[in-house]
Amino acid sequence: MENDSLAIGIDFGGTTIKSAVVSGAEIVHRGTTIDTQSRGASQLIAALVGEILSLKGQFPAVAAAGIGLPGIVDSVNGIVRQLTNVKGWTETPLRDLLKEKTGLRVHIDNDAKAMTYGEWKFGAGRDFTNVVCLTLGTGVGGGLILDGRLYRGSGLGAGEIGQMSIDRNGVPGNYGNLGALEKYVGNAQITERARRRYAAAGRVLPDASPAALAAAAREGEPVALELWEEIGTEIGVACANVVWLLNPDCVILGGGVANAGELLFTTIRRVIGERTMHVFHERLEVLAAKLGTDAGMIGCAALALRPPE
Amino acid sequence: MENDSLAIGIDFGGTTIKSAVVSGAEIVHRGTTIDTQSRGASQLIAALVGEILSLKGQFPAVAAAGIGLPGIVDSVNGIVRQLTNVKGWTETPLRDLLKEKTGLRVHIDNDAKAMTYGEWKFGAGRDFTNVVCLTLGTGVGGGLILDGRLYRGSGLGAGEIGQMSIDRNGVPGNYGNLGALEKYVGNAQITERARRRYAAAGRVLPDASPAALAAAAREGEPVALELWEEIGTEIGVACANVVWLLNPDCVILGGGVANAGELLFTTIRRVIGERTMHVFHERLEVLAAKLGTDAGMIGCAALALRPPE
Known about the structure:
The structure is a homodimer. The first copy, chain A, is of the alpha/beta class. Chain A folds into two domains: 6-116 and 294-305, Nucleotidyltransferase, domain 5 (2-Layer Sandwich), CATH 3.30.420; 127-289, Nucleotidyltransferase, domain 5, CATH 3.30.420. Helices cover 39% and strands 24% of the residues of chain A. The first copy, chain A, has ten helices and 14 strands. In chain A, a hairpin with a 2-residue loop joins strand 2 and strand 3. The first copy, chain A, is globular and about 60 Å long. At the A-B interface, strand 11 and helix 7 of A face strand 11 and helix 7 of B.
């Protein structure tokens, strides 16, 4: 039933809100993109309602809508507890607000969990039982599939790999967590590190984005290569910790920074191998996410169609 | 059914093998203790068979036997893959060997997982859904109950909290894992650190065991107090990492080192609170194991009586 039904998947990002009508892993139709930052919460909710009703009007077979949001989401009670980088969303009962105005079944979830579910159901994580998913972007998020189910934890917050420490006396994270991974390998941190390193080498970098640094490294630029080696090691150390704890069969890396591809993956695989016991890495796959930026919408749509637990 | 039936629980330690007839959380009768190191694998297996048959003879209602072992145990196929600190056990099909000679249902498992299951079923972890268990002894082991089930991971090795790194450039663990927690807070490491620290203060310590150091700290001895504060911080940092990843409702600490009690627990709770987001620690309980050294036997007996999954 899940694969045959149509649902709306909405990816509520810090910059834009994207929506689509989804069938299984297929994007049937893309909706209008909404600007996140120019509106307050109530206006955004009105815009979401408008978009859902418009898509439902065009695709009357749509059975449900799923929304993934960046922050703490109580998916069981349908409440947005707090958003990261979007103001005015605190304890917002978004699910019921949308349900009432659209007449659809609605599911809301954390965006990294939605992406994890999408990758497991239809992407790189298919056929695996224990999947650890990392999203490497502005921040570093994550999600877990354990024993073939999306694992949420007691406060529904599980999977925050980016907040885990790789150095107990390291750079402070946002929550007192010294050495938090995302303070090393977040987008802005990578750019900042590159700028400093090039400056030290007496060079100015016109574009120090992760994408530009990946391009430079692929052309053999030594400073960029060294930086990716470091970033891969840092992510690898965090992954090794997760591997010791959860002994997964698959680690999936997605998000913009993961587009560095083998520059990153080769090092991550090597570091996990160097820092864990054989039985923990012998059959472990470290894979790139497959659904790209659509993973959130696809995952949310699938979660919305899932029968209640 | 589980609580009413009798089973034999066996705790196969690096020094001694203890056995008992168990009913639920109750030790009905203790068996003979077997010395682990003086015999090879086949002699130990013969001794185990003798002990099981003797207990079965005294308690004919015994329905099953469970054995917890220190190392990599394939509990699904009943094979001891490798033991820690006990030689001659590699790929040993212990379950079927014992089954054949005793006529009982037999379950074999990793000792930390057996202890985790015991504490969750009958000890400090009752009424919790997501439980992280640490055993602080010669080594640091662990086990996980997730969504109300014992979580094993894809290679059946999950829960190795003692191998997780608290410092990516720290002290080498046994598997290339720099900064492995157990290389800071294992029994021998605590003693070694205390010796060094007292020597630096121009003092000789007659007994630098964790128990003696806990007694000294309770009497207000400043060097010992400082050491426990450090140890608590190190364990707290590792726990905070696990809490970010799994968002459990309960962390249980057992094993000899945990007998330091509030000297350790107060610091661990504080460090988790300081290094995680509110929603991750607001309802988290950090508790002492309740079943003491019987947890392994009790957990194994319960696992042996469990209907097949």
